[in-house]
Amino acid sequence: MRKVTNKGRQTKQGSADSGVSLRLALAQVNGLVGGFKTNAEKVKSACAQARKVGADIVLFPELIVTGYPPEDLLFKKSFIKNCRETLKKIAPYTRGLTAVIGFAEQKGKHLYNSAALMCNGKHIGTYRKTLLPNYGVFDEKRYFTEGDEPVRFFLKGAQIGLTICEDIWGESGPGKTLSKDVDFILNISSSPYHKGKGKARRQMIIKRARSYKCPIAYVNLVGGQDELVFDGQSLVVDAKGKIITQGNSFEEEIIFAEVALSPKNRKPVARGIRSYRAPATLSKANIKKVPQLPAGVYRKKSEEEEVYSALVLGTRDYIHKNGFSKVVIGLSGGIDSSLTAAIAVDALWSHNVIGVLMPSPYSSKGSIDDALALAKNLDIKTFTFPIESAMKSYDSILKDAFKGTMPNLAEENLQARIRGNLLMALSNKFGWMVLTTGNKSEISMGYCTLYGDMAGGFAVIKDVPKVLVYELCHWLNREREIIPKNVLTKEPSAELRPDQKDTDSLPPYELLDPVLLRYIEQDLSIEEIKVAGLSKSEIKRIARLVDLNEYKRRQGPPGVKITPKAFGKDRRLPITRS
Q: Known catalytic residues?
């Protein structure tokens, strides 16, 4: 784990002789759901690093002990028992520190999303999350009971409030209550990524700090968990909303900061706030000379780089956390399989990625050449399996059943299913995970084949609209050609029949994607959607195809969420409907 810091810039809240200086460590770590031993080791390592630099407080993400989100594992008594026992094992790791550690707490019949306040090796207090999100990918009210009591603790003369994730998103949440009585607010979080989320989150925290007139330290989870990916971007802001330090996106690291506080002389007030006192037996007392915080660099990413980083990390963690090391991808010479292969190489290294060319009589020489050029650019091994003989075998088997009919989608889809069978054969034989290559635009419209190009273990770009696919590929080529130029310029085609083009079945993607954005992500009605270049009847047809193909999407593999509303947890519509 890389140690990173931006040199702490002291806030102008008090003079050196009257103020309090707190040294923080924000452990932006990559947890594993159900990986109690792994997660405990992460805590142990981060605490050791925090002690070395004389940190007063170390923060860990929400539910780091269990991993996030644990979902229905929370219903298993053995899971909760493991969580409880792991928390006890973790306690000694916090000697010389005050630590805030997220865990699932069983109290009688109730289960809470809680933060353990550990001090000098002892569990001295607990805060229970008050605001439980129940929208989008979140379903916390299914599992947890709401906490009803704000919590603060006293350290070195300062009063510090505890919150968990959603508590700070709600403008009038517990953070507002605490701000009247504390000098500093800590927030531990597991906030999943989508495009633009980091910026929105940062602006929200700055707004809260200004509103509360109180500095805020926010630590966020990093890493992939099924279709979710967490971006980190932990930060500390002062009472004026100025960023003191900030963590990088999609990187596991520890971020350090020095925060100057000027504790207010308040009279005790009865606000229903539970209070704890952290003993002053912290790490600085055990260090003869407190070391200077190591310098680090926050690197701002463009939107394309941020999305690409999310896809890479989400893919890497899904493959590795599920026990795989190698992947296999069907290379068509098209832009979707090209982007998928590039992401896989950056996630797993080229020697762990295998490309398979499966040309049919309808595959152009240009597409074959483009697939081989991509493989050369990425330095990946390839197999070539022409499928004409398999197509003829299917024709022979089905000739009596298909007698008197004209070739149509059935024959086209057979090609996709032959290819899916070949990829799955390699997967079964060698233990390689198949990565599917469909994008969000195609999957939205059902322009994909069940048990064909949808067959696989992980759908890397299933939440990436087609126009964004092109933007990511152009960004990849900014310094050298990775995606062959011809792939970027030729007209998209599935090449399942002579002279086929995507536009035979779909509107141009630059017109289709805005409709899909409005219908799927913004939930607008057909009457509300207006896109220049498309008639109302075309928009109605698009919406109808989106609805009709829910059954296909239910049977597809998971993929990285990068838009505000992805298929799956985000969008739960019935298959059978009027």
A: 62, 129, 165
**C-alpha distances in angstroms, 497 versus 10, 208, 410, 412?**
67, 57, 12, 7
Scan for tokens 């969420």, then name that residue.
561
Q: Which tokens belong to 272?
A: 């229903």
Q: How far apart are CA 118 and CA 448, in angstroms?
A: 52
pLDDT tens-digit readout, 182-239: 899 999 999 999 999 999 999 999 999 999 999 999 999 999 999 999 999 999 999 9
175 backbone φψ class: left, alpha, beta (φ>0; ψ -120 to 50): alpha
Q: Is 483 helix (H, G, I), strand (E, B) or coil?
A: coil
Q: What is the CA radius of gyration of the chain?
A: 27
The segment(s) of the chain belonging to CATH 3.40.50.620 are: 305-502+550-554
Is 350:379 a contact under the CB 8 Å cutoff? yes
User: Is residue 575 within 8 Å of 470, Cβ to Cβ?
Assistant: no
End-to-end CA distance of the chain: 52
Residue type, 357: L
State the Cα–Cα distance between residues 463 and 441, nearest whole angstrom: 8
- Domain 2-286, CATH number (from 3.60.110.10, 3.30.420.40, 3.30.460.10, 2.40.128.20): 3.60.110.10
Decide if domain 305-502+550-554 falls under CATH 3.40.50.300.
Answer: no
